[in-house]
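Hey team,

Sharing the BAHD acyltransferase DCR run so nobody has to redo it. Sequence (433 residues) first:
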Amino acid sequence: MTEEKPRVAVKVTGKSRVLPCKKEERRPTCQLVTFDLPYITFYYNQKVLVYKHGGDFGEAVGKLKEGLSAALEEFYPLAGRLGKDEEGVLVVKCGGEEEEGWVGVDVVEAVAEEVEVAELAADEVPELLQQIVPLTGVMNLEGLHRPLLAVQFTKLKDGFAIGCAFNHAILDGNSTWHFMSSWAEICRTGCEPTSISLKPIHDRTKARNTRVKLELPKSASEHEDSDPTKGHSIPLRERVFTFSEASIDKIKSDANAGRPEEAKPFSAFQSLGSHIWKAVCRARGLKPEDVTVFAIFMDCRKRVDPPMDDSYFGNLIQAVFTGTASGLGVIDVHDAKAIDARSKEWEAAPKLFHFKDAGVNCVAVGSSPRFPVYEVDFGFGRPERVRSGSNNKFDGMVYLYRGREGGRSVDVEITLEPLPMENLEKDEEFLKV
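Structure output:
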C-alpha cells in the first residue's frame, strides 16, 4: 500500500530579499549572550497569521514589503548575519563592508487559490500549514549561511496568510511580537521607524556580559545524528483548544480551592498550566508512579537584577523544569539569584540542546497569553487566527496565545501523539470548564 502524498495546495510565484531602508549604514555588532546561545540547536521559530482580505493582493504585498524594510531600520539584527568575532564568540554582524554586509530578509510570494481562511483557522491544525510558512526543519545554527528571518505572503481564496520564520538564537517570543507589532504599526499608520510606540534595546550585554565560545557541530545533520532519539518517528496531531475568560477564572478558582489563607494563590497562568499538565497525563494513561516532566519557558525580563525593559530585543527566557505538581511553585522562586545560578552553570559547561533533554512524558509550555498577537493589524484588520508552525514541536509541546475572542480568553495549541490527543478531546474534566 503506497503512502498517501501530502496535498500540494500552494504555488510559489516570486522570491525577493528585503533590506533595511538605509542599507548603506553599518550598525553595531550584537553579541549573543548566555540567554541566546542554548537556542542555537533549536529550529527557526515559525508563526502564521491568517487574515480575511478582499483587496488587491499585489498592492497589499507591496505595502507589507515597504513596511518591512522600514521596520528593519530599528530591528536591524533581523537583517544581519550570524558569525563569529575574533575570539570565536557568536555575534550578529549588521551591515558594513561587502563581505559583512546586510543579508536582509528572504521574502516568498505564493498563491493558494483553493484554500480558504477557515481551513487555516480551524481548531485542528492542517498539514498544508507547513506550505504557508518558510524554513521548515531548518536549525538555527544554519543562520551562519541563511537569513535570520524569512517571510512568506500567501494569497488565499478569501484572504491571505503571513508566515514568518525567525532564528530563535536571535530573539524570543516577547521580541518576536514586539517586532510584528511594530512592523504592523508602520504599515497601518505610515509612521517613521523612529516613531514606533516601543523602540527596541539592542545592547545584550546589559542582560549578561559573559562571553561564551561554543564548539558548534559542522552541520545541523551532524548534531541530529548525535541524538539517540533520532529515527524514532512518531506521528503527531496538533490542535487548538480555546478557554473562555469564564473558564480561566474557574480553572484558577479550582486550583486555589482549599489552599491555606497565608499561601500565595496560584496565578491564572500557573492554574492553566496545571490543568493542561494533569489532563495530558490522563490522556497518556500514566500510572501514579510514572515519571512526568513539566517545563515552562519563562520570561526573565522582570526577574533579572536589574530588571530589563519589555523592549529588550533578544532572548531573555529560561526553561524551568519540575517533576511534581507542587513544583509549579518554581515560577515564584525563579528569581534573579536562581537565574544567575542557572546561567553560571551553563556557562561553565555549555550544552547544545537535543529534544530528548525535554524529559520523559514531558509537557512544555511556550509563548504567553500576554503577547498581543490579535492586535497585529497591518491595515487589513485583526487576524482571524494566529498559530505556530511545526518547528520545535514534539509530543507534549504547548503554546499559549491570547484568545481571539478577546478578554482574558486563551488559545491552547497542543501537540500530542494521536491516541492521547483523541483521549484529550473526550476528557470532560479538561473540556467542561
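The longest helix spans residues 57-74.

Ping me if you want the raw files.
A.
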